[in-house]
Specification:
Layout lengths: L3 E2 L4 E3 L10 H5 L2 E8 L14 E11 L2 E4 L1 H4 L2 E7 L6 E10 L4 E5 L23 E6 L8 E15 L5 E9 L1 E3 L6 E4 L2 E10 L6 E5 H10 L13 E5 L3 H7 L8 E6 L14 E5 L2 E2 L5 E4 L2 E4 L1 H5 L6 E8 L2 E8 L19 E4 L2 E5 L2 H7 L5 H15 L7 E6 L11 E8 L7 H9 L3 E6 L7 E4 H14 L6 E2 L6
Antiparallel strand pairs: 1-14, 2-12, 3-4, 3-6, 4-5, 5-8, 6-7, 7-8, 9-10, 9-13, 10-11, 11-15, 13-14, 14-15, 16-17, 17-18, 18-19, 18-22, 20-21, 22-23, 24-25, 24-30, 25-26, 26-27, 27-28, 28-29
């Protein structure tokens, strides 16, 4: 269970809040964000939930751009910005959004909005135990709030917006109140982070996105497209055990990690092998515990790769069956069709056939169905085992539920994972739909021994399909995304 919450807002300590901070300058730089959001209904994907209000903070960085968190404006239908020195609200739009690192850039087409605004400059990563100042609009008031906190930890941490990404994070010890996600954290008149999440069920623990992550995002979008973070795509084991080191032929004085698996569809697929030893990445030694030393700090190996961009090439120093070699790797995103994190601004796929509701397995659907179901197990099983055991399969399909109708009487399928259609394993959801469309009769087998097969007859379904769709207000029997590649 995760205990992080995507809303780090006010960082407060007793004392002189906002010391050495130019409040007038911040009033011309930090704005309030009001958002109308509308997400997706993964359980009934042909429907949309009611819109709801949300909000946060943003700050001006120049060139008509304002920075905020991705989670502040995700699934936004309307975005309005309010300056603290004006009564008007201005319509804004998203320029770029990076869900993997929870950052976004906004702009306002009405250029009068930017009159008199002063861009905030970015600074370096703050030192441990140094004081930082957070600025934003916490709940409980409409005025700009300026409070202080102390940097207590710098390390890689989970970003809860997607639930699957992990990046450099700065922990701040301070009291936290919800309301101003996306606001700047300042030290010596420079932005050193963006407030974004808090530790749930704990006191005085909050997090900000540091400038190395911010700069990576800004450089990525320079060509007009956000490409995202590359993934090395390896499962590793430590080499702290002397017997294992001897078995692998690693001499004393050499450090590294054991490659357990190179993930299919990743940068290292077909390049690294099980029982390779990874000694260094771009000349940076890898320690036996899987860390690398960067600026005097030991960070996870992942950090070295995250400094790179999609399309960059890195050199891996590896040992394979006793031979040491340098291996170039072209970095790319992990492009398997079933993402391991939450998705936003993406309409969920579905197919309703004869009252049976089929959907692709995703973290969004698992959340809607309840993590106590077996679907959480199958989501994890796909990434750990099935992706290897079933070559070509990039997405699992779920029979979500059976809509009640005379034709579906005594059929109570719910949240079961499809294994085959007429003996063929669907490689993704589009392929699954094509297998059904091309069959007059279909036998669908499911994972597990306690689920009976489902028999579908195209002629019988045609007689009841429209009546079922009309009964449940389903205008289209399916939504399939375009081919991704």
């Amino acid at each position: 269970m995760r205990y992080l919450w995507p809303c780090l807002l006010v960082l407060a300590l007793p004392g002189a809040a906002g010391a050495n901070v130019d409040l007038d300058a911040l009033k011309a730089s930090v704005v309030q964000v009001e958002v109308t959001i509308q997400g997706e209904d993964y359980f009934s994907p042909w429907m949309r939930p009611d819109p709801e209000g949300s909000g946060g903070s943003a700050f001006f960085i120049g060139d008509g751009r304002l920075m905020t968190n991705a989670h502040v404006v995700s699934n936004a239908r309307i975005i309005r910005l309010k300056r603290p020195d004006r009564p008007e609200k201005y319509d804004a739009r998203i320029l770029f959004i990076a869900h993997d690192c929870d950052l976004a850039l906004l702009t306002v087409d009405d250029k009068t909005f930017f009159e008199g605004m002063k861009p905030l400059a970015f600074g370096a990563t703050p030192a441990l135990r140094s004081q930082v100042t957070a600025v934003g609009y916490p709940v409980g008031g409409r005025k700009l709030s300026i409070t202080e906190g102390v940097v207590s930890r710098i390390e890689l941490h989970d970003y809860v917006h997607t639930g699957a990404d992990r990046h450099l994070t700065i922990q701040v010890d301070a009291a936290i109140n919800p309301g101003n996600s996306g606001g700047p954290v300042i030290q010596d008149d420079h932005v050193v982070g963006v407030a974004f999440q808090t530790q749930f069920f704990s006191q005085n623990i909050g997090y900000m996105i540091p400038t190395p992550v911010i700069r990576h995002f800004l450089k990525d979008v320079e060509d007009g497209t956000y490409h995202g973070y590359p993934l090395l795509g390896v499962r590793t084991g430590n080499l702290e055990n002397a017997a294992l080191r001897e078995y692998l032929g690693v001499p004393d004085g050499e450090t590294g990690v054991l490659i357990l698996k190179a993930l299919p569809f990743s940068s290292t697929a077909g390049i690294l092998e099980r029982n390779d030893v990874l000694h260094a990445v771009d000349g940076i030694p890898v320690e036996n515990d899987g860390t690398v030393k960067v600026d005097g700090e030991f960070l996870e190996l992942l950090y070295v790769v995250q400094e790179k961009h999609v399309g960059d090439t890195i050199i891996l120093k590896i040992r394979r069956r006793g031979e040491v070699m340098d291996v170039p790797v072209a970095l790319k995103k992990w492009d398997v069709r079933m993402p391991d994190g939450a998705e936003y601004e993406v309409r969920p796929e579905y197919l309703v056939l004869g009252g049976h509701v089929f959907v692709p397995l995703s973290s969004g659907y698992v959340g809607a169905a309840g993590w106590r179901s077996d679907l959480g197990y199958w989501l994890n099983e796909f990434y750990t085992s099935l992706i290897d055991e079933r070559p070509g399969v990039e997405q699992l399909v779920v029979l979500s539920r059976t809509l009640q109708h005379d034709s579906t009487r005594y059929q109570n399928y719910a949240n079961v994972v499809v294994r085959t259609v007429n003996g063929a394993a669907p490689k993704d959801f589009r392929h699954f739909a094509s297998l059904l469309d091309g069959a007059e009769q279909a036998v669908i087998e499911f994972e597990g021994v306690n689920v009976e097969p489902l028999l579908l007859d195209r002629e019988k379904i045609a007689k009841v399909q429209k009546a079922i769709l009309d009964t449940y207000g389903i205008k289209e029997d399916r939504y399939l995304r375009e081919e991704q590649r």
